[in-house]
Amino acid sequence: MTGQPGDAPPDEYVEAEIQNMLTEDPSVAEQGITVARHERGLVLSGEVESPHRREEILRRVAERFPDTPVTSDIGVIRTQAPTQVEELP
Amino acid sequence: MVIRIAAVGDVHVDEDVVGRFRPALEELPDCADVLLLAGDLTRHGTEAEARCVAREFGGLGVPVITVLGNHDHQCDQVPQVVKVLEDAGITVLEGTGTVLECAGGRLGVAGVKGFGGGFAGRCASDFGEPEMKSFVRTTRESADALASALLSLDCDALVALTHYAPVPDTLAGEPLEIYPFLGCYQLGQAIDSAPTALALHGHAHHGTERGTTPGGVRVRNVAHPVIKQAYSVFHLGEQLD
Description:
Chain A has 89 residues and is α+β, with helices and mostly antiparallel strands. Chain A has helices at 11-24, 51-64, and strands spanning 34-38, 41-48, 70-76, 86-88. The longest helix of chain A is centred in the N-terminal third of the chain and has 14 residues, at 11-24. Chain B has a single domain, classed as Metallo-dependent phosphatases (Purple Acid Phosphatase, chain A, domain 2). In chain B, 28% of the residues lie in helices and 24% in strands. In chain B, helix 3 (47-57) runs parallel beside helix 4 and helix 5 runs parallel beside helix 7 (185-192). Chain A: This is BON domain-containing protein. Chain A: It comes from Micromonospora humi.
């Protein structure tokens, strides 16, 4: 199967598998993470609701795809009160 | 007179999020008449996660009205989730509506989760395999329920609340290929069938805030990753005078 050492899977299939895993793995369940293929590996970007979730994504991806270099650019969404309102006349 | 509406969607609350929104939510009575939640309150739709939502969004000092999202359906515990939310005083809409007496007038909110299907000219049709027909019929039934709920409300200002998007405008930033999984034109058609003043939705984390329906109704994507704050506040007003 794709992602196993020695299989030399096409990167596109690894990308698809990681994307599906991010949604379907109960410990992740994120639909808002983008997986982009770069020359030197995959870049995960997007935003999550807590630092714990960001760590969990990286842990699960590394566990499942130990040979795939992954860079993280995942942020935690701010939760401050708004400073402006939108007037809708 | 102005009706002040706070809104956010896609908060995906679990134990690790409890307390993050609360400081900003405590300010709501000073700045809003109501808080509308545009679905995906939880990560997997479990009763335990719903209790976390109830702790975070219950007892705020303003009425809280919500629809559910696709994440809230994941574990097939919708009745339990709804009960926990309602026990916390949160009104859950699904093809239904409610009217609130606000200082600025009567606010009507009609809500439905909605569904995917795509947008005019690039959408699924009720044709072919049973699975495809079932998909599109779900879309249509959801939109019909929203239209009925909108038209049933007697109020001064009417708001449509959905999880899925009613227009493609607010999806800008998402890959075009997934638009059919993010919303459907039938929800926009339902919104345009009533004197709707504002439509709020979530679901599209990479989308944009502002759009309009073909009929000119203002649409706002209030998904938390889009608004990047605890909630947005809208002042609906002058048309009431």
